[in-house]
Amino acid sequence: xxxxxxxxxxxxxxxxxxxxxxxxxxxxxxxxxxxxxxxxxxxxxxxxxxxxxxxxxxxxxxxxxxxxxxxxxxxxxxxxxxxxxxxxxxxxxxxxxxxxxxxxxxxxxxxxxxxxxxxxxx
Length: 122
Known about the structure:
Layout: E1 3-8, H1 12-21, E2 28-33, H2 36-45, E3 50-53, H3 62-71, E4 77-82, H4 87-95, E5 100-103, H5 108-117
Parallel strand pairs: 1-2, 1-3, 3-4, 4-5
Helix pairs in contact: 2-3
């Protein structure tokens, strides 16, 4: 069964690197967004099972996306991907509903570890 993945980052290169870090055998449908507004629009048009979300973006940042998902009771697994590895940032995103935090630059082993830990990848 295909998993619907939304990759959200204002950097096309960062999105490309994250997509390359996904397990090659994973059956996924990938959608991309360059900011939080696009991410929420993409989420609302269809089912998103897993969202990889950057924190620092123009127009609407990752924190605001998490707050909106929480307020509107929207349901998907959110994995934050950010260079901001401060403990306060990690704690805040978890309080807002993110299941995990992966630091940039993204490593395939880190992504696979999170996916396995949460039963998203067998």
